[in-house]
Every structure is written in structure tokens, then in C-alpha cells.
Amino acid sequence: MTEDKYGVWITSGLLAQFSSTWKMLREAIENCPDEYWYGTDKDWNYSRTAYHIIETQEFYLRNTPEGMEWGKLLGDTENPDLSAVDIYPSKVVLVNYLEELETKIKKYLKDVKLDDLLTKDGFKWFSSVFEKLLYLLRHNAHHLGEMGRMLREWDCQRMKWQ
Mutual orientation of helices 46-61 and 129-153 as an angle, nearest 10°? Predict the structure, then answer.
């Protein structure tokens, strides 16, 4: 197999796995009843977790950790007078943000070359861009598991395994 074919094979596999996590996340967002969306239990919040998954994808799609604008869709988290509704994004806002990141990651994976995946970027704690992307998939799966567990606990329709 030539190097180009390896690159296409690897990026196609990554894209398939990211696409599956996006479908599951979209379902997890859609299946959460409004009465639970902003609720906080033991410092865990469903809407914040969905936002965290998407925002972390934006972070790790970058070439460097420097310059990330964390919390750009959040209200003032330091203001004790604000409710979760005033702080955390709505389902519609998060689905739009997810679609924005889907487009960016799809383009990146279609354009990236194998050599670029095997190099190190500004995220010094990863041995390569490829490892960083695998970590991101694992990160997404961890938090999707949390969301699925809460949907089960609330006796709601869970997302389908993709």
C-alpha cells in the first residue's frame, strides 16, 4: 500500500469515528428533556457537558493550545445571580456549534496528509497529531457515556450506538 493510500485509509477511519460521535451527541442533545437541560446535580450539568465536548473539539483541532477563547458561548459564570439558563447555551445554539465543528473537522481530515498526522504540533503532551485526534475521540466517548447514563437515569430515550 502506498503512503497516500495509508493516509486516506487512516483519515477515512478517523472521519467515520468522528461522524459517529457527532450523530450520538446530536441525539443526546435532542433526547434531553427541557426540564433536565439546565439542571445541575452534584456539580454536573447536561448542557455544560454537551458544550464541553464541542468546545474541546475546537481546542484540539488547533495547532497550538495558545489563543483558545474558552467559554465564548457561556454567560458570566462568575455571577452568582445568574441561573443556568442565563449561563449555558441552548440546544439550538449547541447543535449549530456542533455543525460548525463538524464542517471544520471534515475539511481538515479530507485535506490532511499522512506526514502531517505523524508530526508533533504545539500540543507537546501528544506524540503526534494522530495521537491527539485519538485522544479527542476517547474524550468524546467518555462524556457521551456520562450523558447516556443520565438519559437512562431520567428514563428518557437514549442515543443509539453508532
Answer: 170
Q: Which residue, among 41, 63, 38, 35, has the nearest Cα to 50 in the 3D structure? A: 38
Residue 138 contacts residue 18 (beta carbons within 8 Å): no
Digit-coded pLDDT (tens) for 78-95: 888 888 888 899 999 999
For the chain, domains (ranges, CATH) are 3-153 (1.20.120.450)
Residue pair 141/159 in contact (Cβ under 8 Å)? The answer is: no
Q: What is the pTM of this model?
A: 0.92
pLDDT tens for 20-71 read 999 999 999 999 999 999 987 787 899 999 999 999 999 999 999 999 999 8
